[in-house]
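step=predict obj=Exocyst complex component Sec8 n=891
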Amino acid sequence: MNDGGTPVAAVRRQRPAPSERSSANSNETGLLINVIRSLTTSVSEDQREVEKSRLEKGYKESGVLIDRLVKNHQQDVEKCLVSFRDVSAKISNCRERIHNVRNALHTVKSLLELRRDDLKKLWHENAQQKSVCEIMAKLEELRDAPSKIEILISKEQFQQAADTVTESKALINGRLSRVEGLSHLSAEIERFTKILIDRINDTLVNMLVVEPFEKHLFHIIRTIPESRINQNRYCLLLYNKARSGSGTESSYNGSVSKSRIVSCVEALSTLFKTVEERSWDVDRLMMLGKNMIDKMITNTVLVMKIGANIDESNEGDTTHLKQLMQLLSAQFDSASQKHAEFGFLVEKQLGRNDVVNSFWRSAQSAIEVVVSEHLDINPLLEKQSVMGATSRKQLFKFENTACAAPNTNSSSHRAKAVICKPSAYNIKVIFPILSRIMETTEKNINDSPCELRRFMHSFVMRVFVERVKGEFASRIEGALRGGEAVRISSNKKILPSCEKVLTLCKDIHDLITSIELYADRFAALWILVLTDYFKNMTEVYEKMTPKMSEPASDTIASRCQKISAAWTADDDISRLLMSLPNWNAASMSPSTPAVESEMDVGERNKRESEILIGNLGTQAQNSLAESNLITDMNDIKMFASLHESLRWFSQEIRELVHSLPANVKMMLDTCMVQVQLKDGQMIDNNSVPSAIEDCVRRLESIADSCLLLLHIEIRVHCFFHLAPLAKYRNTSSHSEADPEVVALGKDLHNFHDNLKDVLSPPKLSYVFDGLGHLCASLFIHYSQFMPRLTEAGKKRVCRNVWGVQQRLSRITNRRESDLDRARAFFDLLQDNTPDGILAIIPEKRSQFTAAELNYLLALSVRSDKTLSNQPGALEKRQTILNSILSQRNRH
């Protein structure tokens, strides 16, 4: 330390290295330990004294050494002490300050502990206050929830409303479950929840059913006068929608409608958490849709009836029914598209994939009701009958009868949505539309046959086919009953029975084309009608033309053994006559007349006259009586009407068959039938068109027989009236023709008067053409049976020829030049002797045949007073005639 009291740093000396100090210390320590061990372990007092002395010696030596060292290092020690005191003081101050800090820390700690408890208490209080505030806010929100839900429902914000409902229920059943006094609020929310669900379902039903149905009604509403619209509330509603634009088709389509459906489905998904709840609501929605479909069908019928002005005094017809079914088909297609969109969302959100199937089941059920009511068929009773639920089979409803028992399950207890008078035949106009609906249904539900098709097959077609069969049987029986089949209309050439049967066939044709799926059944009915008509026409023809082999009774004596009927029935004669060109000309239609030259006409008239004279000339001379003729002109007219009717009927039937659709023809070609005719003949394994054509050909055979009979009959009359002219009679000088000629002319006029309004011109020509040639040939042919002719007799014959020619010309409006040949034949008798006739034979050879020249020569010889009594005179001159003819033939 210096004079100023300022401490001076001690001189630092070199200190031994730590290793050296440690080794020295260890040695010293080891020595000390050995000394202490010797003192403690030694048992000898002397030994301990020795050790003690050693220690004391060592202590003294150490003290001396220390003193010496301290003396040597006095200054350094002082400096060390001063430094030590300073450091000690500073350490003491530090320790004091540390002690103070520690005390302060203890005080702070105690204070902090007190503040922590206060803060914890305050935090708990704050948390409680916050929870209370939240609960109050939730209660306030819960209190406003019903009004908020109501507002959202009114705005159709169903998703937000569903979220509000879900949150409210979660609060009531969760955090606020122990809060008392919320039962009324919970009931309100439940009430609005049901309202929300009902509103969502109603909106969905409106979008899925009402809107698709209504959008097809606006074009009808726009055509209805406003005065009639105001008379009906629903029509007025549609009219207002149309005016406001909310009912336009564009408002029912597009993304807006789809977004509404999505909102509704998501809202339902929010409201119903479990699969069972969702399934239940979808089922409920489908039931609401089914009820709405029934209601919309009723509304559709109502709008159509108002649009068509149909009421109790003005009934609708099948045209309106067809329009109704077409409209319903379009409505169901639109509703199906909406249900397909809805079904996709339901499958995605709610897990149900049967929405479209459910819709079409409801649609089929609704269509069944509409069809049943318009066909007047009760489907419920039909189904019960089929399933054996009842022993009585009621096919049609009789609600208005006194004995009708009430049935609460019947649709008769509600107003029927019919647009026209119910009838089983309404199926004709609606079946094509129903077929398209059935195909659409089966395509959508992927199931065939669908319920509607089974209904149509089992409960409609079975009843309808049987009913049609029964009604057709009654109608054809009425058409052919008694004299109806042969009654001739006063103003038509077609038999009324034929028109009625054709009407039946047209009705069947309509059924075949309308209900193509059952074409085979109705075609079989067609064949049945044609077969019955053929049997009836055969009976009619046979009654009018009894067979030659049948005995003649008193009542039908006048109709027995008719020559024309016998010839017509003779296959050889009829086939021969029908092979002539004039028959083909008569068979052609008036628009395509046959063209024949004069030579062709002459040849076929000659051929026909030869056939008739060859078969009837001898018979007419010997045994032809009036009973062999048909003298009743009503019968003649009936044959003509029968011919024209059956020909017309056959042509109409062929046109009906030809007009069938190609697919129907293909179906009928594969359908084989068996037909039994009146004579027991069986036509088996024949296709339907072939069987129909066979029936038509048989009817045409009867028609051809009638025309051929008329053709032959008028010629038989010529034989009957001209044959007596060959007999000898006293002649007078008057210029009148014989009574037979007058009778023949009268018969010809009666024939013409009764046939001209019935037969077509070609067929009338077929009956009368060639009569001049036949009469001329008959005059010449019967000349071989004439006795000696006087000059008056020759004039009489020429007068008769002229009388026939004159009367026939008035009918045909032709000169009938063929009779000039007969007059020329008999004129040769007046101007020439037998030898003179032989002299002019070369000139007349082309005008007369060899047989006719022989008749002429023989009559001339019989009429000559001299030669008629000479034996061999005729034979001599016939030899000369034959020689002349043979020479002529050689040249």
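step=describe
The two ends are 204 Å apart (CA to CA).
step=end
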